[in-house]
Amino acid sequence: MKRLISKMSAVKLAKAALRKEIEKRLAGLSPEDRNRQSEIIRNKLFALPQFQKSKNVSIFLSLDVEVDTEPIVRKIFEDGKKCFVPRYNKKGMEMVELYSMEDWENLPVTKWNIKQPSFKDERRNALEAGLDLIICPGVAFTVDGKRLGHGGGYYDRFLRHVSETQAVPPSVVAVALKEQIVDDVPTEETDFKIEQVLHA
To answer: 157, 31, 181: which is closest to 94 by C-alpha?
Structure first.
C-alpha cells in the first residue's frame, strides 16, 4: 500500500513539474507565433473527416496561451453544426449548447479570464444531444495521445463518461501548440488517452 501511495505521489509530482515546464515554454511564445500555429492546426482540424461529418461538436473556449479556438467556434456555426462548450464549478464540468457567435460574444468571463456560460442560463446539455466530436484542451500531449490536463480531472471524467454512455462514442481530438508536445506524459489509470493530437 505504501509503495502504491509513493508511486501515485511520484506521478503527481512529475505532472506538477511538467505543468511548470510547459508554462515556461508558453510564456516565451509570441502572439504572432501562437496565431501562426493556430491557423495551421485549424486547417488540419477542418480537413479531418471527423470534423466534416460531425453535427454536434464540443469545443473549449481558449486561454491566451492556447490554440485560439474562436475561429473554430465560428466555423462550427458557419457549417450549420451545433456547438457545445464547457462550464465549470466546484461540482464539476458540464458541456452546454452555445447558440451563435453573438451568444459567444456576450458570455461572462470567469476569474481565469475564460468565457463561460452562466450556471443560471438554461441551456441544452451535450449529454442529452449526443456528441460526434470533442475538441479537447490540455497542458501537454504526446503525439500518440497521452494528455496532461490542468489537474482537476474534469475532462478525463467527462470523456470517459461520454465514451461509456453514448451508443456511438464521439471522436476525441486535441489541439496543441508545438510547445505543448512532449516525449512522454506521466499518467495514472484515470487519465483518458486522446485519439488524435493535432499540432503545428
So the answer is: 157
Which parts of the chain have pLDDT scores under 50?
A: none
- pTM here is 0.93
Q: How many CB atoms lie within 10 A of CB 62?
A: 19
Q: Residues near 42 by Cβ (< 8 Å), separated by ≥ 6?
A: 67, 71, 72, 75, 175
Which residues touch 198 (CB under 8 Å, ≥6 apart)?
41, 44, 45, 48, 173, 174, 175, 176
Instruction: Give CA–CA dist 52/32, Å, rounded.
Output: 28
Backbone angles phi, psi at 109, to 5 degrees: -110, 135
Placement of cell 504572432 in the chain:
32
Phi (first) and psi of residue 176, to 5 degrees: -145, 140
Q: Which domains does the chain have, with CATH numbers?
A: 2-199 (3.40.50.10420)
Mapped to the 3 state alphabet, what secondary structure does 44-101 carry? HHHHCHHHHHCCEEEECCCCCCCCCCHHHHHHHHHCCCEEEEEEEECCEEEEEEECCH
The model's pLDDT over 12-35, given as tens digits with 9 standing for 90+, comes to: 899 999 999 999 999 999 999 999
Bridge partners, 172 (sequence order): 134
